[in-house]
Amino acid sequence: MPSPTPSASILVVDDEPDLRTLYELTLLREGHAVTTAADLQQAREQLASRRFDVLISDMQLPDGLGLSLLREVAERQRSEKCIVITAHGSAENAVESLKAGAFDYLTKPVDLRQLRSAVSAALLSQRAPAAAPNEPQRVAPPPPSGVRALERIVGRSSSIVQIKGRIEKVATSMAPVLILGESGTGKELVARAVHECSHRAHGPFIAVNCGAIPENLIEAEFFGARKGAYTGASADREGYFQAAHGGTLFLDEIGDLPLAMQAKLLRVIQERRVRALGAVQEEAVDVRLVSATHRDLPALVQAGQFRQDLYYRLNVIGLRTPALRDRPEDLPELAHALLVRLCHDAGQAVPDLSPAALHWLQSRELPGNVRELENLLQRALALSSGAVLHPADFGEISDTIPDTLVDPLPAAVDAFARPSAASDARDAALPDDLQRYLDEQERRVLLQALQACGFNRTAAAARLGLNLRQMRYRIQRLGIMLPGAAGGADTEAGDV
């Protein structure tokens, strides 16, 4: 079947004549112009005389490493997309090549379908026209979907400008991305922007909360299952990897993944093949991995709770989402953007934020970051009855009230506040992450209501005094998995 991508000029570098011929014939059948080289010297001679669209190089060559060829292409800012072929199981070489600027890597023995797919992806990622031989590679703007995704990351602080620039830069590669940051800092927004700015924007974006999947179902959820593979498997079902084929798989809270599953995930990353539960054969998957966590992965590695080799494979490209306290200048713009979105979802007019209310928000620590800010604004919208939000609408005493009007603490309360053995015991029981603790409590209550109502969201919402829209919002925000709905789908037969 002919390739959907336009014909291209490709340089193949491999010292084994049979493999070189096999790659050449495979790509010629796709309509590409192919040039071959047996070692680094021949490859350098070819690169000196002309430009190519794609460079495919074996890692081990008679006169050196293919990695040095990659570095030369990157240092000279050439436009070739580089694909490296590494030995089976050579994880370190694969990671090193991606860090050196390779677009993708393949492992021996090379699957010819994966070779064709990698070349097609490399060509699709070249949005910019090729530069002249002595000119640096020109950087193209992201596609319209990528521009919209970047606009959703609100703020003009230096940290936000920096992370947006990094997103555009890393989006055109196949290298895995690891997003680190506190809870509520917008890690999924960053992951979506990486997807939307890439050549995979037309493919699916599958988001998975690794901490929300029951451990006994996690393998089936990730890799799929065949009918009869386990009790209750009444039909074949695809897993997250199959659902994300041709697109991006976002593994949120990767630090919560059980150790046994970490080993299986590592193998899939290395082989790019999955075997569904109950299946005999593996199937190839074309997926870019983006992971995120608020946890300290190096500390988990040291504690033996996270595999070092998996951390090494996931952390090829690192991004860090800044905490809200580190970009206070963005809070006014961010609060306005959140109000616009919340009011649009609720179908109501957007109120103004009074200077006193803005000052009250700026004076809070907001350990839950953007998520906590959104929750505060949502509460204020529910309590407010006017066209302007004031501090009182947030359910708090305004900072503008003079201290003389506030009654002093009663003696009993004051005594309770003094340090003591009892207060020390109470402090030890306090959660170290309030927002995460509250989310867990809310998730538990919602699941209890859903189970009691046979997972009918309309009935569960009424049981909790919510409407269906509010119920859907909470299910999506907390990453609650509903039976028969991949990734917490927004439809259910029991709803009305």
TrEMBL record:
Boundaries of every Response regulatory domain copy: 9-123
PTM sites of type 4-aspartylphosphate: D58
Gene3D superfamilies reported for this sequence: 1.10.8.60, 3.40.50.2300, Homeodomain-like (1.10.10.60), P-loop containing nucleotide triphosphate hydrolases (3.40.50.300)
Superkingdom in the source lineage: Bacteria
Cleavable signal peptide: none
A molecular function (GO) term: sequence-specific DNA binding
Protein known as: Sigma-54-dependent Fis family transcriptional regulator
Source organism of this protein record: Hydrogenophaga crocea
